[in-house]
Amino acid sequence: MYPMNEHKAKANPKLSTESYKGVRDFFPADMAVEKHIFDIWRSVSEKYGYEEYNASVLEPADLYRAKSGEEIINQQTYTFIDRGDREVTLRPEMTPTVARMVAARKRELVYPLRWYSIPNLFRYENPQRGRLREFWQYNMDIFGVSSLAAEIECIQIAYDITRKLGLTDTDFEIRIHNRKVMNYIGRDIFGLDEVKANALLKAIDRKNKMPKEVFVTAISEVLGDETKTAKLLTILNSKNFEEFTSNLPQTTEEHEGISEIKAVLAGLEELGITNAVFDQTLTRGSDYYTGIVFEIFDKNPENRRSVAGGGRYDDLLDLFGGDKVSAVGFGMGDVIASDLMDTYGSLPPASTPADIMIIVVGEQNTNYALAIAKKLREQTVLGINSPRISVDISGRKIGDQIKAADKRGVPHIIVIGDEETKNGILKIKTLVSGVETSLSL
Predict the structure, then answer these.
(1) Which of 58, 98, 342, 362 is in the most buried spot, having the most CB atoms within 10 Å?
(2) Can you give the pTM of this predicted structure?
(3) 24: which residues sit within 8 A by CB, 6+ positions away?
(4) 178-237 pLDDT, tens per residue?
(5) Dihedral (C-alpha) 411, 416, 420, 421: value to the nearest 10 degrees?
(6) What is the pLDDT of residues 165-185, one digit of tens each?
(7) Which DSSP letter does residue 128 get?
(8) How far apart are CA 279 and CA 282, in angstroms?
(9) Prior bond to 112 cis, omega within 30?
(10) Which residues contact 215 (CB under 8 A, 6 or more apart)?
């Protein structure tokens, strides 16, 4: 038998107030920041004519296994068998979902499609700065445009959002590469099959996240030849775009991928975006990219990392059959966006729940105060159109009510007691200055 106190503890366990590891509780101050981020994402998207969409967080696991890769399914997802014996995954990314949605109505839709979403995503990974297990992510995609105008518009939106988050052009750079070039290096220069070429891409994608000797070992295992390893290191260590191309085998024609990189960089410069650079080590992790890939990279030592990224994925809709639909898109997470604003001092000011707090003196005056609040919400008060009015119905002393309003950052108060209810004469007081203004209803 259990000792009595131990038995009671088991019968009446005290639940922890801690949230699940890697997720967040959003108190009102946190929600104000989250709303600010979402407002930036929405306002920039809609200025470019993008429409918002969404979908369920539940998807068949095969959707991710088909193109995102076994690594995501086996190591990074919340995947389970439902009561109908179906394998289900809490979505870890949005691109496969939007591809499925477009494929489902491919012939009904009017192209080009300009869509964006702010989905709730889940990845089972080690929580760290900028990375949690549950997060919200901005996704934008343009479907039905095969020209590089789609990449340029996509990067322009990413640039505008980054600037809205408080960064200047010198704070970040836009790194650009092309999967066609990387495929050319792996398959044509080094003669790798598709499996080994993909393994090489994944190793290069992690190059800056591992010690040099570990990276050299990783690519040596794929290439299986010291001469080839040395040759690849020479290509990857190129100091600039010109040196990189000079290290590639000479051909009668310039490689298509090289031409696309040049065209995108030139197109961005015409738009006044001059902080875009070529990065020969950029691959982006997802298996579905087919052309230009890019990322926004924060250069601040406190947050030196990629903060957004995407590219072209023309073949993803092929998984669902039918005609090909070209696509370009990118994503940015809310955790990273918040970290950026914190780093650059651009977090929004503390929020307040109301513009005016009505202080009620005496329970008998509550109904009158509620009626006044209803009327004022439809007026313009102190230059505020349709102000947010909150009524303190706590029944506390007048001094405590005023202190509470001040602590919450409410700038103005109206006191309603017996006299105000009787004669209808109200005064609004600005707490910071103490100035009172007669209020005409």
Answers:
(1) 98
(2) 0.89
(3) 30, 132, 134
(4) 999 998 888 888 988 888 888 888 888 888 788 888 999 999 998 988 889 999 999 998
(5) 140
(6) 999 999 999 999 999 999 888
(7) B
(8) 6
(9) yes
(10) 203, 206, 207
